[in-house]
Sequence to fold (258 residues):
Amino acid sequence: MLSWATIFIISILSIITYACEPECRHAITQTLADRYVPALESTIQRLHDALGSNLYYVSIPEQLVAVVPETELRDTIVSIVDNSITNVTEENSGANLEAALYVTLFAGDQPFKGDCNSPPRLTRKKPPPGESWTREECQKMDYICGNPPSICHFLDDIKQRIVESLKVRLKEQARYGSGILFKNLAPKMKESVRSKITVYGAGSLLKDPGVAAYINTLATNTLRTVDTWANTEVAELCSDGTCDGWDEEVIPEILKWP
Fold:
């Protein structure tokens, strides 16, 4: 015969609400991350366009064009820009984006982790297999903790967190000296153009003031373009409504996890 203490413990365990497990957390994070990819790609594409406008048409000194075909110099610039944009796009999509947003949701300030029973808001620990949490449970779970109804309840807050974290992330990637955009653009552009000049046996031109000024202009325009982008396009990320309108798509995806 079970003791009263055992019966009490069993009764308590039967109503304890379980937290979202790692698989659940990563799945929900990926669902949310996917919604921001179009806005990120659009913002990064505008950087690509701006770089093209500010670099491709920089005047090339006559003494350089006389030795190195103009098309090769311009193709070198295009290649550096394209590769850099591809790299930063990859950093802000797929598993890389999910990993960054996972930290925002589950490891940063006010993470969606921990006890969902103090105080209790729900009457069951998790839905039966094949069923989801309900919208009513989403509404009731009105404090931050580790279960899907709490994540659902604070979806608007989560969306704001994500946008702010993405702005910080992009600005860090554009940071002078340390960001991947800086590392992949200005230094590599100078190096590639100098290498192209050397390949054509015109290394002496690297000491030419006009050629040196051309190379420096490429680097300066690159840095200025990236900085302007970070302070305008990135600062306005999602301000045009491109990151809204999908709540009804993701809420069922959140609530389906036990």
